[in-house]
Amino acid sequence: MIKNILVIDDSALMRRLISDIIRSDKRFSISDVATNGLEGFDLITLNPTKYDAILLDINMPKMNGIQLLEQLNKMRLKLKIIMVSTLAKEGAKETIRCLELGAFDFVTKPESYIEAKDGAFKEKILTALTFATELVPPTEFKVADKTRTVLTTLNTQTHDRITKPKAFIERKSHVRVLNSAKKIVALACSTGGPKALHQVIPKLPANLDAPIVIVQHMPEGFTNSLASRLNELCALTVKEAEHGELIQKGYVYVAKGGSQLRIVKSRDGYTLSVTTEAARNGLKPCADIMYESLVDTDYEDITCVILTGMGGDGTQGIKKLTEKNNIYVIAQDEATSTVYGMPKVIYESGLVDEVVPLEMVADAITKNVGVQ
Question: Is 138 inside a domain boundary?
Fold first, then answer.
């Protein structure tokens, strides 16, 4: 079935470039084009179910992308919107705001026409549209033929228990620790992650009894804006991870886009290692790398959290972690995930202790970690 796409951009060049990209793939069709947010808003409200996905510019006259998203939120319209963002600092802040408002994902604009023709921008657009319109499953993952009980939190108003049998990898049970134990929370997310983080991190108490490290799949230049925005909303201090920084309670460290994050032993405790190196499975930062770095630490309780996102990043790292460490794994449920990929993979692996809707993730973290 051909997917209908709406393009909203005030640049004639970008409209033509994006339209050519979409027309090059027979799975998609340009249904309409708008030159500003107000035109786009009129088209959307005229027939909200017409479009399978929308490509939306941020900076436009009459109504910009942020204002359009705000209006759609007021009308409770749920649409798959992909932002087309600049790499500039201000563009990064605006992009984070759009993701906070519910945009499905974003792609960065090429900085020149030559760059736009090299194929990378085309690939980003078509990949984002493919997942937004659900033309392919968010992930495929095979696990061993073993079973294990999973605790699933029940919200009787909006969510059901997961009762479908699954195949699982065996792991040792989580052991409760004393309040004085050394703890850390390690969280991973991808598509839909920024919005999810805005609904989790601000709910955590300032006296949470563990530091938090986060891997959110995002390019360089955007993670600092994400951390800054979260810091404005949180009782905890949220910042982009810096190389050599001592890990402390009361802090949330967001992995730097375009780099890899590890937790390493130092003379004074544990510090962050932020390195520029090759991507793993196309990911910089990669959650598997972050989780693997915790294997040789002496944290007595590691709370692993997997939120919405494409693919299965984090599962292999957590699997290595459970072979040696005492861990508790929390996964977001399908109903509240923007993309049920990463949470599905970790759940089907049998490594999960608890499956919860997004609005209950912060409570699940706090309950397991405790407060000082």
Answer: no
217 included as an active-site residue? yes
- Nearest-angstrom CA–CA distance, 365 and 196: 14
Global pTM reads 0.88
What pLDDT score was predicted for residue 168? 52
Which listed residue (9, 288, 313, 353) is catalytic?
313
Asked if the structure places residue 80 within a domain, the reply is yes
Alpha-carbon separation of residue 288 from 84, 262, 279 (angstroms): 28, 10, 11
Per the annotation, the verdict on 180 as an active-site residue is no
SS3 state at 366: helix
198 catalytic? Reply is no
Residue 228 lies in a domain: yes
* 139 found inside a domain: no
Catalytic residue among 190, 225, 273, 337: 190
The parent domain of residue 210 ranges over 151-369
Options 217, 301, 337, 353, the catalytic residue: 217
The conformation of residue 67, written as its DSSP 8-state character, comes to H
pLDDT tens-digit series, residues 299-346? 999 999 999 999 999 999 999 999 889 999 999 999 999 999 999 999
What pLDDT, on the 0 to 100 scale, is given for residue 115?
74
Number of domains, the chain:
2
